[in-house]
Recover the amino acids of this structure.
């Protein structure tokens, strides 16, 4: 029973958003380059989840990896975040929509369970709502039935997380957020996560932080370590306990992103980057 065993979480996730027809080939390439964690969503507007499944199948056939080698993560997305290509019945209640979305994801990905199932974003920006509570308990049922091993939430504020906890809801295993350096790299949410052993997944680490990539401190550390500023940012993210995502479409960048784990940064250097922009 997958849910009973400890779930190994890789130290980097390959993100599959915005790749459309290139999704199968880029997913397979990412696996060939060494990624073992794949992030997707059953949200056809931004992701081609069935294409991820085709990439996985091709990698399995070629003997690159087996399903057991992988950490697969996908998401439930509310209707306002979707276009007309819904993975569930628009008229159904939210619990039914979650069950239908999970079933569709498993079919797309050619598996009987995912490793992590994430609420793509709460229903409202202002707080944890009754709708979120209903969706979360439906997700817990999916986890209890073995269709996902772990659960997460995405695009959440500290307020969302505090209100979620106040309802007595089960603590998520993951929080996945866009990570802005100017907000202390999402300092408040990361601190909440650290206190509760929630793994913080950071996305847009490069695109949200162009000022960091240009900063003399980061440029200097990159030159010193014979690395790129992007590698310094990914290594920093791991050093402060984040699980970074990259959605690079470039084989060279895939290699560099994974190699960033070998870059040495001292505790002082990590602290300096952490307080660089906010
Ligand atoms: N939960 C959510 O709501 C949400 C929202 C957005 C994203 N995500 C997830 O996060 C994943 C990553 O998205 P992202 O927003 O971080 O953006 P991204 O798609 O990873 O884009 C990163 C940008 O950085 C470049 N890049 C990557 N590695 C590089 C390197 N070593 N050197 C220089 N440039 C490099 C890429 O260009 P090249 O392609 O040329 O390398 C690309 O332009 C998505 O695919 C998705 O899975 C989740």
């Amino acid at each position: 029973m997958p849910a009973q065993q400890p779930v190994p979480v890789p130290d980097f996730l390959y993100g599959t958003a915005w790749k459309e027809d290139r999704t199968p080939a880029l997913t397979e390439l990412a696996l060939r380059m060494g990624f073992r964690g794949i992030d997707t969503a059953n949200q056809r507007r931004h992701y081609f989840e069935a294409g991820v499944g085709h990439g996985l199948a091709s990698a399995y056939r070629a003997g690159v990896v087996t399903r057991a080698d992988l950490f697969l993560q996908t998401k439930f997305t509310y209707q306002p975040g979707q276009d007309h290509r819904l993975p569930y019945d628009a008229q159904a209640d939210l619990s039914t929509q979650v069950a239908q979305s999970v079933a569709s994801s498993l079919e797309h990905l050619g598996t009987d369970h995912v490793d992590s199932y994430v609420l793509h974003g709460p229903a409202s920006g202002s707080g944890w709502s009754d709708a979120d509570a209903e969706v979360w308990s439906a997700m817990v049922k999916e986890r209890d039935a073995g269709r996902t091993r772990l659960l997460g939430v995405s695009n959440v504020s500290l307020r969302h997380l505090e209100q979620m906890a106040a309802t007595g809801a089960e603590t998520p295993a993951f929080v996945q957020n866009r990570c802005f350096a100017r907000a202390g790299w999402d300092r408040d949410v990361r601190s909440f996560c650290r206190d509760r052993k929630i793994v913080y997944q950071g996305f847009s680490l490069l695109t949200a932080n162009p000022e960091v990539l240009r900063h003399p401190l980061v440029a200097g550390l990159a030159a010193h370590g014979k690395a790129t500023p992007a590698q310094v940012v990914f290594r920093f993210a791991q050093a402060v306990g984040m699980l970074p995502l990259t959605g690079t479409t470039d084989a060279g960048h895939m290699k560099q992103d994974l190699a960033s784990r070998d870059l040495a940064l001292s505790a002082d250097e990590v602290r300096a980057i952490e307080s660089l922009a906010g």
